[in-house]
Amino acid sequence: MATPEEIPISVKVNGEVYGVSVPPHLLLSDLLRDRLGLTGTKVGCETGHCGACTILVDGVSVKSCTMLAAQVDGSDLVTIEGLSAIGSMTDLQAMFWEHHGVQCGFCTPGMILSLTDLLKRNAAPAEAEIRRWIDGNLCRCGVYQHAVNAVQSLSKSGEVNARPRQETKDTAAAQGLGASIKRREDPEFLNGDAKFTADVCLPDMTHVAILHSNHAHAKIKGIETSAAAKMPGVIRIFTGADLAGKLMPMVCIWKPAGVDSHFPPHPYGIPGAQTALATDRVRYVGEWIAAVVAETRQQAYDALPAIKVDYEPLPVVTGAEDALKEGAPQLHDTVPGNLCTHVTYGDKAAADAAIQSAEVVIRQKQIIPRQIHHPIETRATLAQYDPATEEYSLWTNTQIPHGNRFMICNLVLGIPYNKLRVIVPNIGGGFGSKGYLYQDAPLMLVLAKEVGRPVKWVDTREGVARTNVHSRGQEQYGTLAGNRDGKISALSVTNYVSLGAYPASNGPGAPLVLTGRSVTGAYVIPHPFYEAYLAFSNTVSLGPARGAGRMEAMLLIERLVEMFAREIGMDPAEVRRKNMVPPDKFPYENGLGWTYDSGNYVAALDLALEGIGYSDIPARKVEARQRGKRLGVGIGSYVTIGGVGPSPRMGREGLIGSTWGSAIIRLHQTGDVTVITGSQPHGQGHVTTFSQIIAEQLGISIDRVEVLHSDSHGVPYGQGSYGSRTFSVEGAAIYIAAGKVKEKAIKVGAHMLGVGEDEVIYSGGNVQLKKDPQQAKTLQDIASALWFAWDLPRGVEPGLEVTSYFNPEDFNFPFGTHAALVEVDEQTGAVDIVRYVGVDDVGVVGNPQIVEGQLQGNVAFGIGPALCEQVVYDDQGNLLTGDFRTYPIPRPSEMPKFELSRTVTPTPVNPMGAKGAGDVSEPAVAPAIVNAVCDALSDLEVRHMDIPVTPEKIWRVMHG
Amino acid sequence: MSQSAYAAPRKLEEIVGLLASNPGSHLLAGGQTLLVEPSRSQIAGSLLVDLRKVDGLSGIQSRVGGGLRIGAMTTLEAIAASDLVHKICPVLADAAAAVGDAQVRNRATIGGAIAEADPGSDIVPVLLVLGSTLDITGRGGSRSVEAAEFFTGPGRTALSATEVITGIIIPSAKPSTGAAYEKMKDPATLFALCGVAASVTLSAQGIVTQCRVAATGSTQYPMRLQAVERLAGARPDDGALGAAASRAGEGVVFRGTFYASSEYRAHLTRVLTERVLKRAVARAGVA
Fold this sequence. Notes:
The complex is a heterodimer of chains A (960) and B (287).
Chain A: E1 7-13, E2 16-22, H1 28-35, E3 54-57, E4 60-63, E5 76-78, E6 88-90, H2 91-98, H3 108-121, H4 127-133, H5 144-157, E7 162-164, H6 186-190, E8 206-212, E9 218-224, H7 226-229, E10 234-239, E11 281-282, E12 288-294, H8 297-303, E13 308-313, H9 320-323, E14 339-346, H10 348-356, E15 360-372, E16 380-386, E17 391-396, H11 401-413, E18 420-423, H12 440-451, E19 455-458, H13 461-467, E20 470-482, E21 488-498, H14 509-516, E22 527-535, H15 550-568, H16 572-579, E23 588-589, E24 595-596, H17 601-612, H18 617-626, E25 629-639, H19 647-653, E26 661-667, E27 673-677, H20 686-698, E28 705-708, H21 726-753, E29 760-763, E30 766-769, E31 776-778, H22 779-788, E32 800-806, E33 815-825, E34 831-841, H23 848-867, E35 898-902, H24 925-936, H25 951-958
Parallel strand pairs in A: 1-5, 8-19, 17-18, 21-22, 27-28, 34-35
Antiparallel strand pairs in A: 1-2, 3-4, 3-5, 6-7, 8-12, 9-11, 9-13, 10-12, 14-22, 15-20, 16-17, 16-19, 20-21, 23-24, 25-33, 26-27, 26-32, 29-30, 30-31, 33-34
Chain B: E1 6-7, H1 12-21, E2 26-28, H2 39-42, E3 48-50, E4 60-62, E5 68-71, H3 76-80, H4 83-88, H5 90-97, H6 102-107, H7 110-116, H8 123-130, E6 133-138, E7 141-146, H9 147-150, E8 151-153, E9 156-157, E10 164-170, E11 177-185, E12 192-202, E13 208-216, E14 223-224, H10 226-229, H11 238-246, H12 262-286
Parallel strand pairs in B: 1-3, 2-3
Antiparallel strand pairs in B: 4-5, 5-10, 6-7, 6-10, 8-9, 11-12, 12-13, 13-14
Helix pairs in contact in B: 11-12
């Protein structure tokens, strides 16, 4: 068959006319990104769902992944790059900046262009219209409320004109901790200039596509690649056999401490995981079998169907409890009975005895299905090998660049640590899904070396669903005991969890420690006990997601407390009040291994109840019933560990690694400051908040501060961002390092002023005489003197650079209460969240608006699993929810305005008093919503519903 | 000689000619189904015949004697935002606004929605209850097909592979006619998990003289619910409407998935039928 002829088209893009010839089926998004280099247009799904690829065609917002390039012949296109001239912004972009409408920035170009279209149709849209209009612009960070705020502030001014980029003119005094300044990161996201991994190109680059297993469990009898190898553009095809001796299996760096555990093998005797490409057997649908290297991405993917794999199917088991049963299909020779480990926390005998003697005992089984993180940016990796220097370079969107480097060099490839450079471009959301070593990173390095050219792999949405870790996924048996006076006496939990067919790098962590030690929630429970059985089954690996482990814990304890309250006929709020850890009990040992640092749990509860109008609920229920709606209120209280963490403590839990924070501060001779952090931002605004720490500590404007991160050249080692650790651990390291900068500045400044150190103080960027502040040396003066080094105090070295490692003495424990008001349609079972109130306490904060964005994101991320998100495998291990057509992500129009506020209780475990925020309040969401739904149905004797509480489940409850 | 797999001729005759001379080719309108997986993989290599350059296929006009003619390439967003549609046939505007999201509506065309006949289409049930007619052009010239005759089965229509839908005629409503559409959406696809459209005409005495009801999403394909339509002849009090709605499942096979079973969809069909009947009657009363 002849190759189809290319189509000549003429298209105006951002004011410039292009005459190009395009293959007839080339997508418009590919034309823009690959041919015209306009990478501000993002691709997140290629199925028209996520909207990251939205552009304007003849002034109308459309998704460029569902259009052919040929279809825009003669059209006028505007992409994000062309929306405003270089160095300027439209009013909409400026308001997005002002209102923190950007987090990771991946969905931003599409959302901006959609809203540009809306504003042309209606200059003053109402909130509901704005939300509905961006239903097709999925944002997993949850910026919707801030986006609405931005649009509405704009419609008040009534203009949509370009304006120059306006940097903040605030002085250092107004830029310190506690100031809601605009994010320094945002202009490049708003203008589409920010480069993500898929946007990075190298000369002579090749492209990789991966063949997945279509069987959940099978022997591979043969792989036939010869037909695929002859396909256009195919350079080489690799199977597992081609990689023999070139790389070791992936690893799990979490070996549960103090108990027997069994894992797939690794030559070094540490827990192993999957091999990069399967050789003789596959154990889940999606497991990697072959890699095609081709000249273009399309050619690589086009060749996949031509590879033929001869499978011999084996019996399949997907559930954890099922996998542990006698006679279940066995996955690994090294793991008898599929049991990875059995771990217990607390005193079982004491808990059993307390349950025996209690007046009231509540028993409930709860199935928490798996959730898929689904960041809108898929994973991507670009690898290069230089034979002259034997150096490898890796660009990849990992939340743990330094951890990747360590694991790749030392545990998988066996190459010198100094021969691999890891660079992380901007990341389009992670939520935990990018916090591992996946097989692609070492594999692409090997392929780059073998092929002798750079290789790039960009995953598909289906690939995300099938091969990225999933999270949650617990089969819990909970028992709560107490007395009729409302006091809880004991809690006993048995949990079955599948780690998947192979463990993720930190797979055991969430179901063991994060769930197990957290399951007492906000309450004093005299006799708690937790045990978990971790199993392997024919599913993709399990790993943490935003709210990791604690979501599952809070959902269990908050459901049990609710059921207990109903059983004894007491207001659930009152039961919580009676049992919450009182403010004078801190530090409080929870009996399962956590020491809660500080808090006033009842105060947050009462504020949330006041916010939701708790006392008016009975009247509102009556009113709603007249409209055919069942109204319910639900409470979700939480205490969730943040600030991971104290390294000795993590070591005792079984982490083969460390979790301290690191910072380098370099004061240049000009007085400018470079901060180098070990953290890794993917939407959390690190650069802004860390600059604010410097403004606070050193009294200089943030304009004089640069923050470097995410490149193993120049950053010695860093832990990355996960576990709500960045501000309170990495930030604390910067705070402490800045203190050391001040110490040296005081020494030198006093010398310059000709006085003793005890006669000066550091204030407002100056070292000044205590008795005469006019007599001062600026930090710039001092930096200059340290550079010239002509006259330094005796024993003082020239220059000023400080390194600080902060190993916190303990974790921190944010807390709060959320309350949801829902209306359930009596006939259809549809749930409408009418109001959502959250009161969170994350200690002292850096940038309140950034924190607000994180807390908004927690709620947005938590609503999905409560209402609709769930992973479904059939009994043959096929993933039925493998794309956005089958796995629903909540849309902005389905969410109410989140009414969030904060109390502030400092923690003693770091010098700033800061607690974690990034994922800590997510665990409140599902309990608040499920409790509200159960409350709405309370007259129907509903004790419990598993998430997601879909309309059909509710209908079945209502209609027997 | 190599051949292109894409063509966008300016004349309808050329479109029809290309379809006829290239078996296996596909007609391309807004592309919101055809260019999205899984369809996109299935059309790889085949000829796409794009309607975009053919003049006169889009636009909304009121017809002499009442009703509307809507060009097949008119986008759903244009229909949802049209003052004319809101005035003359508000139920169609409601259904168009209920489709997908804004960027999909900006590309998706009413002709494409009809030709695809998706089992969860919001547009098709409304066309069924409005008694609309489709203008179709093929090799032998043009013909008109009633919507009721057009949708023949799951994914099947009366359109041949060499024919093009050019326009949709919405007849003028009889006096005292009201119509309504309601859906419960699939949270992932945003198509109808279940949708029901109804059109009710009342006599001067307030008796139902004509009743058309159609379901989508819950059924195998968008179809009329004839057992419900036996409401005609009755006084539309709550009892009669409820009784009619309770017949919604008669003779109908409902779809089921892991997210929503056939039993639940059958229930939703009855519930939404009662709701749209009530709204249609209310609208008829004020007409």
